[in-house]
What does this fold into?
Amino acid sequence: MIKTEYKIKFSIDDDEFNLIIKEPNLEQKKLLEQKANEQKDKFISLEQKAKNESELNLKINEINETILINKDLIKESSPKDKLMLLIENKNLIKEKTALLKDLAKLSAQNEIINTINDDLENLFKFKLDLLLDGVDRDKFISSIKAKGISYKLVWQYLDESIKEAQEKK
It folds into this structure.
């Protein structure tokens, strides 16, 4: 037998709720996919930011290594070679400073992460509003809000409850 809804008893602290979780129909699936796709550009932007940060950190580490090697070489070099190595280190330090400024600019873009977290919470809330039913639905949602529980966390537990219900049948 194929089930499209699951009756679940769900507890938050000492409160117990009788809920019904419905499988999304075709129209609801499209709505959920549309909401999720709206976030795709933000995830791509976040991935690009992480890639850029990684590349900058790699360049900074390479520069640091070169500076250290040059410092060791300076101790053993002739005055002419020392001058060339000191000039090279000076240029490397300038390059490193510029890279650190670029890295700081990227780090300042953390609002992307915050908006993604907020958007994910809104997506899970939308999913809850769309697929949750039962006599305790409103009481359950009020309890989530009052206790400041993440909708993402709620869905993790609801998904576990659904799996258990599916295994019983």
User: Anything to note?
Assistant: The first helix runs from residue 26 to 37. The helical segments are 26-37, 40-76, 79-107, 111-131, 137-147, 151-168. Strands lie at 5-12, 15-22, 132-133.
